[in-house]
Amino acid sequence: MYYLLLVFYTNDGEKINYILMIEDLLNRYLNILGIDKKNPDMNLLNEVVKSHLLHLPFENISKIYYKKYKNLAGIPNPNYS
Q1: Closest CA to 53 of 74, 76, 35
Q2: Contact criterion met (CB below 8 Å) for 35 and 51
Q3: Which is higher by pLDDT, 79 or 70?
Q4: Integer distance in angstroms from the first to the last C-alpha of the chain?
Q5: Is the pLDDT reported for residue 35 higher than 60?
Q6: Residue 49 above 70 pLDDT?
Q7: What residues have CB less than 8 Å from 22, skipping those under 6 apart?
Q8: Which residues pair with 6 in a beta bridge?
Q9: Which residues contact 5 (CB under 8 A, 6 or more apart)?
Q10: Contact criterion met (CB below 8 Å) for 4 and 26
Q11: Helices (H), ranges, 1-81
Q12: Is the pLDDT reported for residue 47 higher than 90?
C-alpha cells in the first residue's frame, strides 16, 4: 500500500496533515514525473524531488499579491471575485 502525505496550514497557522491511500493518484503523479513505482528509499526520494522541480511549474507571485493587496491567505476560494 502506498501513502500520500499532504500538509496544509490554516490562516491561523494550524498545521493539518492528511494521509491518503490513493493508488491511482500516486500512479498518475509518478507517471507525470516519469518515475517507475518502486520501494521507497532515499534514492527514490531524491529522484522524486528532482523530477518534481523539473516537471511541475511553481509560481508564487499571485500569492504574494493576494496577501499584500487583498489580505488573502490559504487555499483560494474559486467563488471569490
Answers
A1: 35
A2: yes
A3: 70
A4: 41
A5: yes
A6: yes
A7: 4
A8: 18
A9: 17, 18, 19, 20
A10: yes
A11: 23-33, 42-55, 61-70
A12: yes
pLDDT, tens digit, for every residue of 2-34?
A: 666 778 888 888 888 777 657 777 888 899 999
Give the chain's mean pLDDT.
79
Element (DSSP H or E) covering residue 9: strand 4-9
**58-to-4, 54, 61, 67 alpha-carbon distances in Å:** 20, 10, 10, 17
For cell 507571485, name the residue.
61
- Exposure letters 38-73 (e unless 16+ CB within 10 A, then b): eeeeeeeeebeeeeeeeeeeeeeeeeeeeeeeeeee
Q: State the residue for C-alpha cell 499584500.
A: 68
Q: pTM for the complete prediction?
A: 0.49
CA-CA distance, 63 to 74, in Å (whole number)?
9
